[in-house]
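Hi F.,

I've been meaning to write this up properly since the lab meeting, where we talked about keeping a consistent format for the predictions we share between groups. The idea is simple: the sequence comes first, exactly as it goes in, then the structure tokens exactly as they come out, then a line or two of notes. No screenshots and no reformatting. I'm using this chain as the first example so we have something concrete to point to.
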Amino acid sequence: LTDEEKQKQQALLAEHIARADLVICTAAIPGRAAPRIVTEAMVQGMRRGSVIVDLAAETGGNCALTEPGRDIDCNGVLVSGPLNLASMGAVHASEMYARNLFNFLSLMVGEQGALHIPFDDELVAKTCIAHQGAEPGQGA
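Output, unedited:
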């Protein structure tokens, strides 16, 4: 882009960011510093309570105010620079899966740990693929 085109692009971006409650930055170039896209002036133009989550924080961030690994307040706008988000997702997904399995199996474990399969429960009925050697609806 020419310098004039870059200025026009920045002005349009500033207008959109000023109206946004949430901005998620993701621009990253492998092996290089993240491009600075959101300027300090753009952040100052945002409403109080707005949030910027800079997913490119590990390589410096797309926002001029991003501090990798920190959440900062800029006149009421939260600028978050989380690190290593990919590793955090696995923990939460694993916990959620384990909790779902526990809750599902709890439907089938009665008092004193005895197995009782409540086929009248919609979840149990829809997930049962076989019972006592037969498919559901065929004598199961």
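Notes:
Residues 85-106 form the longest helix (22 residues).
Strands lie at 22-25, 51-54, 71-74, 77-80.

If this format works for you, I'll send the rest the same way.

G.
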